[in-house]
Write a structure and sequence with these properties.
Layout (H helix, E strand, L loop, with lengths): L3 E6 L3 H11 L5 E7 L2 H11 L3 E5 L7 H6 L6 E6 L5 H6 L4 E4 L4 H28 L7 E6 L2 E6 L3 E7 L2 E6 L5 E2 L3 H7 L5 E3 L4 E4 L3 E6 L5 E5 L4 E4 L1 H11 L2
Parallel strand pairs: 1-2, 1-3, 3-4, 4-5
Antiparallel strand pairs: 6-7, 8-9, 8-12, 9-10, 11-12, 13-14, 14-15
Amino acid sequence: MKTTRTIIIDDERLAREELRSLLKEYQEIEIVAEAINGIDGIEKIKEFNPDLIFLDVSMPGMNGFEMLKQLEDLPQVVFVTAHDEYALQAFENQALDYILKPIDPEKIANVVRKISHENSFEDEQLLNLRKSRRLGENDKVFIKDGEKCWFIELKNVRMMESDGNYVKVYFDTFRPMVLRSLNSFEEKLDNEVFFRANRKFIINLNHVVAIENWFNGGLKVELSKGEKIDISRRQAIRFRDIFSL
């Protein structure tokens, strides 16, 4: 579940405690900090980079609207105030919501629903984008093998080796096994970087440190960690066609 990093900004301690208590039941909301006024709020936002802030309007020294004007990158904002006359100004500041004190718990539930809907929409967009394009060397991928997990940039992957129903992924000193076919990797990866050397191997061309002619018109390459892989005759012809000057 994606969590929404949240800061509560209010000069009244009891108001902050009430809001924290109401938000506690929502696992998707992570309260990372509290601030007691506008200046403190600006500092906390810069330090914690939240996704969402609950912001009181009336605070001593600098009100909520004045505080927002001091920020270049705004998180989503929910105004929480005892005064209803600021609602129009709040929504002119692209507020996600405007909640009057004393806080109605259903108003908090509505905010969480809005956040969850936006997160789901963003996740769906990201998933569709990744499905519709090939992954390049600067993309990061999640790999799990048993109890071990990695989140790595593809540029660090030297090669992939078919092993039965699994694919062995080589990066650094690791070789985790992924339950997928080598063909599925070939279809998903940028073919200007990841090249199908033969029936068993895909190699990262940026890790090739040496190459030589081999038997029957094939090629042999050496990768950055010393692995030597044969490029089949058929794929060697393709390699020359694509990459020759």
